[in-house]
Amino acid sequence: MTLPSASRRLALQWLALLATTHGPRALASGVDLPAEVTAAIGADTLLVESGTLPLLLCVPHDGDRELPGIPARVNGTRVRDQHTLALSERTARRLEQLTGARPWRIACRVSRRQVDVNRPEAEAFEHPALRPVWLAYHQAVVHAVDALRTAHPGGALLLDIHGQGYSSNTMFRGTRNGRTVTSLVARHGRSALDGPDSLGGQLASRGVGVAPAPGSDAREEQRYVGGYTVATYGSHRPGGIDAIQLEFGTQQRANPELGDVLAAATLAFLRAMPGLASGLPGEMRGVQRAAGADASDSKASNARLRSIPPA
């Protein structure tokens, strides 16, 4: 998978300038990355962690850095998706505890006020100095997707983690109404998207409000149907992988134990899909039901999630 041609020299020069005031950030496993990505990590505009699970967690909208001398965007949404970066970290950490392995994780550290990496380039920023940030983020995603396809021929999953304030106790699924998980549905049937063993079904069985509801044939909420990332890297594209946008409500994200629940639900989902399960460590490949064997270790989290009143 490739991105449109880019001004690599400008990107590298600008990111190198930023890096002079920030120490380099280590990358897990020392993976060989594109130069733009390495420069962005050093400039602290991008977080990249490699992993061996068939899973990539993306966090586009929880950056807290504002680059000096660059005004905020005038157009588009500029609200920060609070707690989504912490949610991705807790999910990754819990998955490592459960499996002994970690997912890939990529996050933009620059504020959405200046750049929105979940938009096409023409809509993502209004100052040319932000182009290297957008470019590095997507070069990292391309690299991770290519690595996952090579390492996991049975399939891999991208979860794009967002927040929304429309319904505070609901997680909205976004797959362009199934399009970005074309491979998943072809391999495992429609129930892989909306049945009890689907990711939504696994979350719902653990007390998380989900829309569309598992078992429903309702279409996805149009405002959260899936943005640029899942539309660009989903399995409907040549070289893509199955991709799901997760829009967690305000109250859901405020619960620090949501990451434990998301990890348990994601692992149960991966184990229930033979293609995806083939990429798990050997002892983790057994199939689980929606209320599977690992549900007991998150009972406390489930109870706390259920105690939050609906919006």
Q: Can you offer a commentary on this structure?
A:
This protein has helices spanning 8-19, 35-42, 84-99, 121-124, 131-151, 182-188, 191-194, 199-204, 228-233, 250-254, 258-272, 274-277, 299-307, and strands at 46-49, 55-59, 104-108, 157-164, 171-174, 210-211, 242-249. The chain has 311 residues and is α/β, with parallel strands linked by helices. It has one domain (8-307): Aminopeptidase (3-Layer(aba) Sandwich), CATH 3.40.630. It has a 7-stranded mixed sheet with strand order 1-3-2-4-7-5-6, with helices on both faces. The protein is globular, with a radius of gyration of 18 Å. The termini are far apart.
Per the principal axes of the C-alpha atoms, what is the gross shape? globular
Strand content bin: 5-15%
Computed over alpha carbons, the radius of gyration is 18 Å
Q: Tally the structural domains.
A: 1
CATH first level: Alpha Beta
Give the oligomeric state: single chain
Mind summarizing the main beta sheet?
7 strands, mixed
Give the integer mean of the pLDDT values: 87
Fraction of residues in H or I helices? 25-40%
Q: How is the CATH topology named?
A: Aminopeptidase
Number of helical segments with 4 or more residues: 13
List unreliable stretches of 5+ residues.
16-29, 289-311
CATH architecture: 3-Layer(aba) Sandwich
SS content category: alpha/beta
Distance between the termini: 41 Å
